Amino acid sequence: MKKSNILQINNQYIQEELQKSQAYRQEKKQKNRFMGSILILVVFLFVLPTYNLVTSYENLQKREVQLNDLQKRYKDLEKQQKIETSLVKKLEDEEYVTKYIRAKLQYSKDGEFIYNIPGLLPR
């Protein structure tokens, strides 16, 4: 084995410099921890509003779909109401009522025969 030719000086100046470098490393380590905790806090503060924003957007999309469904249903109900209103107006006419009753309920006069043909019933 070879013996090292390096001689280490261990005096007060060297000891002070070692302590300074250790103190500097310790201070740097504390700053890094502090900055890391600040970074985690900032990320957390951005995650919460983002989550709320995404949830709100999903709710908005659901409400828009629901609104479209309700608008379609409203249009269908309007059509149905128009049909019912026209039927009420038609039922005010006595001649139409007699035709309707004879066709729908198959009433006949004495000696009459009734033949049902699909699609010819009055509406």
TrEMBL record:
Keywords: Coiled coil, Membrane, Transmembrane, Transmembrane helix
Superkingdom of origin organism: Bacteria
Coiled coil ranges: 60-94
InterPro entries referenced in this protein's UniProt entry, alphabetically: DivIC, FtsL/DivIC
Signal peptide positions on this chain: none
Tagged with keyword Membrane: yes
This protein's record includes keyword Coiled coil: yes
Biological process, per Gene Ontology: cell division
Transmembrane stretches, start-end: 34-54
Protein name: Septum formation initiation protein
Source species: Streptococcus cuniculi
Lineage: Bacteria, Bacillati, Bacillota, Bacilli, Lactobacillales
